[in-house]
Amino acid sequence: MASVTEHLERRIDELAESATRHAIDLRRALHRHPELGWQEVQTQATIREHLKSLGVEAHPIATTGLVAEVGQGERTVLYRADIDALPVEDGKTLGTSPVVSEVEGVCHACGHDLHTALSTALVDVFRQLGSDLPGKARFVYQPAEEVLPSGAEAVVEQGGADGVVACLGVHADPMRQVGHVGLKAGPMTAAGDAFEIVVRGKGGHASRPYLARNPIVAATRAVGALHSIVSQRVDPLEPAVVTVTRIHGGSANNVIPGCVELGGTIRTFTTDTRRRLHAAIEEVAQAAGITQECEVEVKIHLGAPGLVNDVELHALMERVASEALGVECIENFERPSVGSEDFSFFGTRAPTYMMRLGVRRPGHQAAHLHSPTFDPDESAITVGVRVMGRALLRLMAGQG
Fold first, then answer.
1. Strand ranges (DSSP E) for 28-119?
2. Residue 71, φ and ψ in degrees, nearest 5
3. What is the average pLDDT across 7-16?
4. Closest Cα to residue 170, out of 154, 187, 190, 188?
5. Of 101, 87, 92, residue with least CA distance to 39
6. Average confidence (pLDDT) over 98-116
7. For the stretch 148-178, what's the b/e string if a residue is b when 16 or more beta carbons lie within 10 angstroms of its beta carbon?
8. Strand pairing partners for 194?
9. Which of 280, 263, 112, 289 is nearest to 195 (CA)?
10. Under a CB-based contact definition with an 8 Å cutoff, are residues 205 and 211 in contact?
């Protein structure tokens, strides 16, 4: 089987460039017409039509997602791409960038359009390998990675990851130059939860605060307390984040409102810390309410669990990336990201691995993920095809 696999890997390298050219057309179409999580109707149709042009049928999953399979055999490996955009105004301009969003206030500022294009390039290569494939590859185009509820959770609940031996994916990384990849075993991203707090007091005239119960005072005390939770409740050697990101209340300078709402995010790496911070948020919010005789309601919205890269898959990725790109292009790193990634839900069905794919143009300053000027180098698609194509192939053949 090894010699057969080596032959197919050479074929992957030969087909990668042409597959990338077709995939770039898709990437630009998606970039012009981005859609937010759970709204990816046109995105779904565009991807489905592109796959159909390759002779591959895709079927809906998780409402606005798709799933397609190439190959046959007992061993099935899953490759996931996320397809939603962000509520970010595109800050790029034509001339400096090959494509910009045509939708006001919405942009692929996280690289999901490139993730999707890379996946279809892999489909293109594998369908050309045809019956020579030693197994089956399942390609999931997952909606709603950036929002709650999670699209990955819905895909998994609907059986999209059943019966697979492993789940692979990539994330665009503007901190790494195109041609390079980032690899890590173990914890990769944090669990990402959200909280909402409603403080209800008693409105009144701003000149007579003693006749009211001011929820703004209680809310601001809650904000201060929430931002001290990690330093007081978590081991300083363990990473964790609690951040208040929004607060709404009041509409006039001379009126004390009856209600204030605030919310934010929680990032943790262990189940125990996750549980303790949830309890602490409830505790400090209620305590802040007591100071103003306000009622407080706290809601915790569970997001994706932490993403953990499988150790054996890491060893495989080191081998195939070194063979495809050269050891000088492999960047192993130790520190996980406190960002969250719902690819972790696939880990409830099979071992998972996410590779960071360098997308920074040589000589250019990096524009961070989720920034208006994020603009990945499209040649990274070829790099992803060569590395991930090998990994998928070896997993199909049982050579992981």
1. 58-61, 65-71, 76-82
2. 100, -175
3. 96
4. 188
5. 87
6. 98
7. bebbbbbbbeeebbeebbbbbbbbbbbebbb
8. 265, 301
9. 263
10. yes
- Structural tokens at position 266: 């929680």
φ, ψ of residue 306 in degrees (nearest 5): -65, 145
Q: Inform me whether the pLDDT recorded for 1 exceeds 70.
A: no
Q: How far apart are CA 320 and CA 385, in angstroms?
A: 11
87 upstream amide cis, omega within 30 of 0: no
* Amino acid identity, position 226: L
CA-CA-CA-CA torsion sign (110, 112, 113, 117):
positive
Give the position of tokens 């300083």: 236
In angstroms, the CA 61 to CA 160 distance is 8
What token pair was written down for 72? 């046959």
DSSP state of 361: P
For 208-265, how does the pLDDT look when each residue is reduced to its tens digit (9 = 90+)? 999 999 999 999 999 999 999 999 999 999 999 999 999 999 999 999 999 999 999 9
Distances in Å between the Cα of 85 and the Cα atoms of 131, 198, 247, 284, 325 are: 35, 29, 24, 34, 30
Q: What CA–CA distance (Å, rounded) separates 215 from 112?
A: 40
Q: Are strands 259-268 and 186-200 parallel, antiparallel or unpaired?
A: antiparallel
- Of 177, 175, 197, 172, give the one whose Cα is nearest residue 27: 172
What is the residue whose two structure tokens read 């920034």? 371
Q: In this structure, are residues 261 and 248 in contact, taking their beta carbons and an 8 Å threshold? A: yes
- The fraction of the chain above a pLDDT of 90, given in percent, is 96
Cα–Cα distance, 367 to 378 (Å, whole number): 15
Copy the structure tokens of residue 89.
């105004």
| Residue at token pair 């520190």 | 335
Q: How many residues does the chain have?
A: 400
| CB of 175 closer than 8 Å to CB of 256 | no
Strands (E), the chain: 58-61, 65-71, 76-82, 136-142, 166-177, 181-183, 186-200, 204-205, 241-248, 255-256, 259-268, 295-301, 307-309, 330-332, 337-340, 352-360
- When pLDDT is cut at 50, 70 and 90, the band that residue 2 belongs to is low
> In the numeric block, which tokens belong to residue 3?
């010699």
Q: At a CB cut-off of 8 Å and minimum separation 6, what does 282 contact?
A: 298, 300
